[in-house]
Design brief:
Helix content is 36%, strand content 16%. The chain has seven helices and six strands; from the N terminus they run E-H-E-H-H-E-H-E-H-H-E-E-H. Helix 1 runs parallel beside helix 7. The protein has one domain: Flavodoxin domain (Rossmann fold). Strands 1, 2, 3, 4, 5 and 6 form a six-stranded parallel sheet that branches. The structure holds flavin mononucleotide. The site of flavin mononucleotide has 16 residues, from helix 1.
Length: 181
């Protein structure tokens, strides 16, 4: 059975509405290894060898995170910078990610209108991760995302919509996990 590793980056996960619903669904799958990097490495000091071993043994790698300032959370950037090292992800003998499926899944606080009709789209924002996938020889799957996911009392109070969108995002991910390869 295909091995799936989900790298979850969320610095205040205990307060999460959206990502919590998504990963709680994903971790029900027996072939999913969920790794919440902020809780595994609260001080940001990554066990690089351990992470690389897990990635080497995975067939599919998913980055799951809330979009923060049009980017990945700092914990994920730290993880990327440390784990995807020379000799592992690129450079001499750096072919350990080659051929693996790579999926980027994010929740976005703002409405879809802020990322369409002439605005920078989410795919354009995260072209860096697509390039990362290409550069390391992984097979990029289409991004999975949902908008309007910030529950902020007084601003966006529709918690039910956030929860519904999160469930739909989880279902999309589960289909992609089950259908690919
Ligand atoms: C520090 C910070 C930066 C954020 N930046 C953005 C942003 O650039 N664009 C956006 O649409 N939402 C932004 N948001 C909203 C989050 O994306 C949203 O709250 C999150 O996806 C909801 O997921 P959760 O319930 O799992 O926390 C930001 C939130 C925080 C805390």
């Amino acid at each position: 059975m295909k091995k799936v590793t989900v790298i979850l980056a969320h610095p205040y996960f205990s307060k999460s509405n959206a990502n919590a619903i998504i990963v709680n669904s994903l971790k029900e799958l027996e072939n999913v290894n969920l790794r919440h990097i902020d809780s595994i490495y609260p001080n940001g000091k990554i066990d690089i060898e351990a992470e690389q071993k897990i990635l080497s043994e995975s067939d599919m790698i998913i980055f799951q995170f809330p979009t923060f300032w049009y980017n990945v959370p700092a914990s994920l950037k730290n993880w990327i910078d440390n784990v995807l090292a020379y000799g592992f992800a690129f450079g001499a003998n750096g072919d350990k990610l080659k051929g693996k499926e790579f999926l980027v899944s994010t929740t976005i606080g703002g409405p879809e209108a802020g990322y369409s009709s002439g605005n920078v789209t989410i795919e354009e924002l995260f072209v860096n991760l697509k390039t990362l996938g290409n550069f390391t020889g992984m097979k990029n799957l289409p991004m999975v995302k949902s908008y309007g996911m910030a529950f902020i009392p007084g601003i966006n109070e529709d918690l039910e919509a956030v929860q519904q969108n999160a469930k739909a995002q989880a279902e999309t991910l589960i289909k992609l996990i089950n259908n690919s390869k």
